[in-house]
UniProtKB/TrEMBL annotation:
Name assigned to this protein: HTH marR-type domain-containing protein
Highest taxon of source: Bacteria
Lineage start: Bacteria, Bacillati, Bacillota, Clostridia, Peptostreptococcales
Organism name: Peptacetobacter hominis
UniProt-recorded Gene Ontology molecular function terms: DNA binding; DNA-binding transcription factor activity
Keyword annotations from UniProtKB, A to Z: DNA-binding, Transcription, Transcription regulation
Keyword Methyltransferase: no
Pfam families: MarR_2
UniProt domain HTH marR-type: residue ranges: 1-141
InterPro entries in the cross-refs: HTH_MarR-typ, WH-like_DNA-bd_sf, WH_DNA-bd_sf
Length: 153
């Protein structure tokens, strides 16, 4: 069994390795202006392309901080990746959509995700996958409980 320090280090290492790999695949495809976090936002917008999605929905779906999403949306709008539409007079009801330019990267994004998925599960049995995914879900829920409990206080 691993020491607790190693568990934490390995967990963080997976995150950083995945991000480095993702960025390397982006560079291979010649995509330099979109970060992995921006792709998380774009993925949410692609899924809500017809109806649009409000700011709070983007924050909830991506699990990113409001300040991070706010800055990111402004940058993405300047890059021509997204646009916003007022839905009434309340700023909370502004809807966000991907532009054609923002949708242009969809296939590349999912190709990269497929490659990373294959790398993650290389040499892993179906039974090990199932256990791993259950453990990941539990860990994610544990983090969310702590994060959102703290925010409500």
């Amino acid at each position: 069994m691993l020491k607790k320090e190693d568990v934490i280090r390995f967990s963080a290492g997976i995150h950083f390795s995945q991000e480095r790999l993702f960025n390397a695949f982006l560079r291979e495809k010649g995509i330099k202006n979109i970060s992995i976090s921006k792709f998380r936002v774009l993925e949410v917008l692609w899924k809500n392309k017809e109806t649009g999605i409000v700011f709070s929905g983007i924050c909830q779906e991506t699990d990113l901080a409001k300040s991070t999403v706010s800055i990111m949306l402004s940058n993405m709008e300047e890059q021509g990746l997204i646009y916003r539409v007022a839905n009434g007079t309340d700023i909370q009801n502004v809807l966000f959509y991907p532009t054609e330019e923002g949708c242009r990267y969809k296939n590349e994004y999912y190709e990269i995700m497929d490659k990373i998925y294959e790398i993650i599960y290389e040499g892993v049995s179906d039974e090990e996958k199932e256990v791993y995914e259950k453990v990941l879900s539990t860990i994610t829920e544990n983090y969310k409980k702590r994060i959102y409990k703290k925010k409500r206080k």
